[in-house]
Amino acid sequence: MPRVNIQASHLQLKRAYEPAIPEDGIRILVDRLWPRGLSKEKASLDKWEKDIAPSTGLRKWFSHDPARWTEFQRRYRAELRQHGDLLNSIRKLANTHTVTLIYSARDEEYNDAVVLRDVLLGRGDA
Is this model's pTM higher than 0.85 or not? Predict the structure, then answer.
């Protein structure tokens, strides 16, 4: 499947615990685990793409440690290479709609959704 290029403005990031708003567009949870204490109703998700999340081993190794960020990005991008069809399906949605990648990490700068967004936008390899 050919790669679909998307506008950065069509791809947003948001913590799962922030309220959903219409401007979120299509809301996709990109974590392997369901966010603690969040009901499905409050999450207001359109999709849950847990297979695109970092592997359990990588998630546990990273443990949201900023000192491991560079290596985490490298390893996660390598894992994402195995999910080209899933990446392209999200790109295709974001080509015509606003898509918000939902994540539960507290750290808004060092989390898997940040890497995923960059990969989807073609920033660096995947």
Answer: yes
